Amino acid sequence: MHSIHPRDSERFLLRQLCERRLPERFPDLHFVTQSFTPSIIENGIERTACEILRAMRRDRRSVFVILHEYATALDFGEHIVFTPHVVAGMAESFIPIAYLPYNCCDDPPPMDERPLLASFRGSAATDPTGTRQRVITALGGEADCVAEDTDRFHDWHDKAQQRANASRYRELLAASRISICPRGAGVATFRFWEALASGSVPLLVADGLRLPLARIIDWDTISLRLGESDVDQLPAFLASQSIPRLAEMAALGRRIWDEWFAPERWYAAIEEELARPRELFPSPRPCRNARNTKSSFGERAGEGQRSGRMHRQRLACGQEMQNAERRMQN
Predict the structure, then answer these.
(1) How far is CA 124 from CA 160, 217, 246, 271, 317, in A?
(2) Could you report the per-residue pLDDT of 214-242, keeping only the tens digit for each?
(3) pLDDT in tens, 73-118
C-alpha cells in the first residue's frame, strides 16, 4: 500500500479536492488550498492562527482542511473545518474526516489466521491523560495480547529504529484480531484507520471522538468502543468478543474503508458532506476578531470538561515534538 508521511498527507488531500474540481462544483464556498499543519509544526499555533485568519473570506464561507489537532483550539466562526480531531460538543463547523493510514498490512490475513486477540504498540509518554499507560498495564498479564511501549514519539528515534518500529507495528496489525486505538496527544488516532485498512477490528478508547459520515456509516458494526474510564475492564471486554462476529466486522470495515477512506478515495467523505443541502449544513455564525481567535488557543472548544492542567500537558508534549522535528531537520 502506498505510504504518505503524515506531514505530507494534508497537501495530498488538498490536491485531490482540486483535481475533483470541488471549488468549481461548490462556488458558494471558498476552498483554502494552503496546508497549515507544516506551519503549526514549525511556527506554532499562535503564529499560524494569523495565517489562517488572513485566509478567511468575508464574502463566502471558507473551507479548511487541517489535520493537526491544535487547529481545533481556534475559533473559525462561520467557516468550515475538516479535521480528524472533532469531539462531541465542538462547534458544528468542525466536521470529522479520516486520517490517511501511514502503516498498513499489504496483504491482510483472514481473521482465523491471526494468533493474537488484541494488541497495542505506541508511546505512553505522548498521552497526558494516562490512558495508553493504563492500556499497557491492563494487558500485561494476558497471554493472547501484546502491549508494547515505544517510549517516545516515532520521529524521535533514528531512521533505523523508525524502520524497525514500523515493521513491528505492521506485524502486530496483521497478527491481531482487535487493534486497540487509545487516544494520544490528541483524541484522534492513526491506528483506527490503519486497523480498518489491515483487516483488524479497531477498539477506540477516546472519549467523545466523532467519526466521519455517522449518518451513513454505522460505526458500531465495524468497530468497538470502550470508555477511557473503563480501561481497567479491558481484558474482560476483549474476552467477551465473538471471533465469528469480529471476522464479519473486519470484512465489512475493510469494504467501507475501500469505499470511503482509501488513499485514492480520501476526498469522498468531504465531497459527500459538501453535497448536503445547505439547509442541513452547520448554521453560520460570526467569527471573532484576530485577537480573540488567537486568545482562543488554550480553550479547546468543546472540551470544557478537560482541565487546564491537562491542556498545558498536551501543549508541552506538542512543543517537545516540534522541537524534536526541528532538530532532525537540522
Answers:
(1) 21, 31, 27, 35, 12
(2) 999 999 999 999 999 999 999 999 999 99
(3) 898 988 999 999 999 999 888 999 999 888 887 788 999 999 999 9
- Strands of 224-225's sheet in order across: 145-149, 116-122, 176-182, 201-205, 224-225
User: Residue 302: left (phi > 0), alpha (psi -120 to 50), or beta?
Assistant: left
Cell of 134: 493504563
**Can you give the pLDDT at residue 324?**
44
Residues with Cβ within 8 Å of residue 20, at least 6 apart in sequence: 267, 271
Tell me the pTM. 0.84
Residue 25 has phi, psi (to 5 degrees) of -75, -20
CB 86 within 8 A of CB 174: no
Q: Which three cell numbers stand for residue 17?
A: 479536492
Residues 6 or more apart whose Cβ sits within 8 Å of residue 175: 114, 115, 116, 119
The single residue listed with the C-alpha cell 504518505 is: 4
Q: Return phi, psi of residue 95, to 5°.
A: -115, 125
H-helix or E-strand spanning residue 174: helix 159-175
Q: Which three cell numbers stand for residue 71?
A: 487547529
Q: How far is 68 from 123, CA to CA, in rounded Å?
A: 18
The pLDDT confidence band at residue 310, using thresholds 50, 70 and 90, is very low
Rg (CA), the chain: 20
Cα–Cα distance measured from residue 95 to residue 213, given in angstroms and rounded to the nearest whole number: 9
Q: Quickly tell me which residue has 508511546 as its cell.
A: 123
* Residue with the three cell numbers 491492563: 138
Cα distance between residue 54 and residue 36, in whole Å: 12
